[in-house]
Structures are given as structure tokens and as C-alpha cells.
């Protein structure tokens, strides 16, 4: 049975009648790619005919289209090779998983596109309006400009990496700052930045913060990203790197909470 190819350039019947170059042109890949698929065990390599050419039939084209489609979806070649021996049910399940992975990647790309468009429009900050307003209010509460800038950078990081959890963490901090006693602890933390790392006031502040943290959250209910996340360490590391006093303060607080 004859099968027309695009623009009628290649035809085949049930035998192996097209060359590797014709196969590549029909499917839309390079001959080098086909040879890679041969080497990786993804596509069987036919024997040469009497003229010394390798000839391919319709089955090779079908297999090659499947391989190309999976590869373009980001499936590793090793996984594609394994799928050659999969049952129909296993293959369909794999396709569903790949589709789910593509959906997640598309969602991530769309989010990146939205951020890119905000950047193009001059809207550099990805923070919600209420967070931006909160940061402006910090100065009126007595916080230093460097603290406000640091908080802005940290909230950008949290919202970028944990958008579902970030707003809950923000509301928790805003609620804490509404309490005068807790707000004073934040202010003391801010102003401790320039203290000597061995200043005894740091020990006292660490004790007060640890005690207030236990009273507010209990020993096992601290808010934050999941335990496997690297973001808390990254956030605290950014804070600590700007001040030896803050670094020691963090060490003391952790030690007291662990105890």
C-alpha cells in the first residue's frame, strides 16, 4: 500500500524502501539524530541492502515519530528506551505521567512569563500590595531603613519560592508586629545589628526572643516552609551574613529553642 509523505517527496510500500535521509526528512529530524537513536538502542538499525544502503519502512517512521514526540516532551532517552518494552497499560500510564509533568512545566513557564511581563512594564516587585504597604509602615514603627530593605528582599524570596505559604507567614509576622511587646523584640533585633558579637545584651535578647517564640507557637508548631526546604536556612543565612551580632543572636536562639 502506497503512503504519500509531505509534498509527495517520499513514498513507500510494505517493504523497506526509503533511505535514512528520506526517513529523516519525512519525520523532521536529522540523520545524525537517527544514528544517535540507533546507538542508544531506541530505534532498530536495519541491515544494508545489496546496494549498501539501509532501507526503512513505515514501522520505522512510526517508531521514530513516537521517539521524537517523547524526546520533545523532555523525556530522557534512557526512559524512552525502557518504554519500548513496556506493556500497553504501562505505556499509557507513562504517557499520563509525562502529560502531568508537561502541565506542571507549562504552569511554571506561564508564571515566569507573567513575571517577565511585569518586569517589562517596570513593575519590578512581585510582592502583593499589602506586603508593600506593610514595608512602608515599618519605618513609621521605628525600624531602620536597612531593616526595611532586608525585609523586602526576604519577602521577595519567600513569595518567589513558597507562594502558597508566603501570605500565611506574612500575616503571622504582621500580627506579631501589632503586639507591642513582640514589636519591641523585632525592634531590638533590628538595632542589635551593630553591637559587638560578645555584647551581653545579645544573650539577653536571645533569651527573650526564644521565650516569646515558645509562648507564641509552642515547641512543635513553628511556622515556616517544610522541613526539606532550603529557604529558611537561606533567609537566615542572608540575615546573619550582614552582621556578626545577628549571627551570634541566631545561634543562641536556636540553641535555646532546641534545648
Terminal residue distance: 80 Å
The count of domains is 3
Helix segment tally: 12
- Element order: H for helix, E for strand: EEHHHHHHHHHHHH
Overall radius of gyration: 30 Å
Biggest pleated sheet: 2 strands, antiparallel
Query: Which descriptor suits the 3D outline?
Result: elongated
> What proportion of the residues is helical, as a percent range?
55-70%
Estimate the strand proportion: under 5%
The SS-based structural class is: mainly alpha
Q: How much is the average pLDDT?
A: 83
Low-confidence stretches: 1-14
What does this structure look like?
This protein is mainly alpha-helical. The chain has 3 domains: 3-85, Orthogonal Bundle (Multidrug-efflux Transporter Regulator, Chain: A, Domain 2); 86-124; 129-258, no CATH class. The chain is 67% helix and 2% strand. The protein contains 12 helices and 2 strands, in the order E-E-H-H-H-H-H-H-H-H-H-H-H-H. It has helices at 20-27, 31-39, 58-72, 77-83, 88-120, 129-140, 145-161, 163-178, 180-191, 200-217, 231-241, 244-258, and strands at residues 3-4, 11-12. The chain has a two-stranded antiparallel ribbon. It is elongated.
How is the topology of this model organized?
Elements: E1 3-4, E2 11-12, H1 20-27, H2 31-39, H3 58-72, H4 77-83, H5 88-120, H6 129-140, H7 145-161, H8 163-178, H9 180-191, H10 200-217, H11 231-241, H12 244-258
Helix pairs in contact: 6-7, 7-8, 7-11, 9-10, 10-12, 11-12
Amino acid at each position: 500500500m502506497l503512503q504519500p509523505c509531505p509534498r509527495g517527496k517520499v513514498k513507500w510500500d510494505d517493504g523497506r524502501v526509503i533511505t535514512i535521509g528520506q526517513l529523516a526528512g519525512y519525520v523532521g529530524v536529522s540523520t545524525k539524530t537517527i544514528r544517535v537513536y540507533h546507538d542508544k538502542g531506541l530505534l532498530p538499525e536495519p541491515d544494508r541492502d545489496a546496494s549498501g544502503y539501509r532501507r526503512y519502512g513505515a514501522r520505522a517512521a512510526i517508531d521514530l515519530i513516537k521517539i521524537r514526540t517523547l524526546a520533545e516532551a523532555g523525556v530522557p532517552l534512557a526512559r524512552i528506551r525502557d518504554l519500548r518494552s513496556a506493556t500497553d497499560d504501562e505505556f499509557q500510564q507513562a504517557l499520563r505521567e509525562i502529560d502531568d509533568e508537561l502541565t506542571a512545566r507549562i504552569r511554571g513557564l506561564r508564571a515566569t512569563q507573567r513575571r517577565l511581563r511585569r518586569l517589562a512594564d517596570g513593575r519590578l516587585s512581585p510582592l502583593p500590595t499589602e506586603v508593600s504597604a506593610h514595608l512602608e509602615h515599618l519605618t513609621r514603627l521605628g525600624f531602620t531603613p536597612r531593616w526595611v530593605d532586608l525585609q523586602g528582599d526576604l519577602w521577595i524570596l519567600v513569595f518567589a519560592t513558597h507562594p502558597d505559604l508566603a501570605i500565611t507567614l506574612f500575616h503571622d509576622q504582621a500580627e506579631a508586629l501589632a503586639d507591642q511587646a513582640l514589636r519591641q523584640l523585632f525592634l531590638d533585633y533590628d538595632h542589635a545589628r551593630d553591637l559587638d558579637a560578645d555584647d551581653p545584651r545579645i544573650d539577653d535578647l536571645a533569651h527573650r526572643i526564644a521565650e516569646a517564640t515558645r509562648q507564641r507557637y509552642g515547641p512543635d508548631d513553628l511556622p515556616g516552609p517544610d522541613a526539606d526546604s532550603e529557604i529558611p536556612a537561606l533567609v537566615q543565612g542572608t540575615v546573619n551574613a550582614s552582621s556578626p551580632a545577628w549571627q551570634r543572636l541566631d545561634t543562641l536562639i536556636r540553641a535555646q529553642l532546641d534545648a
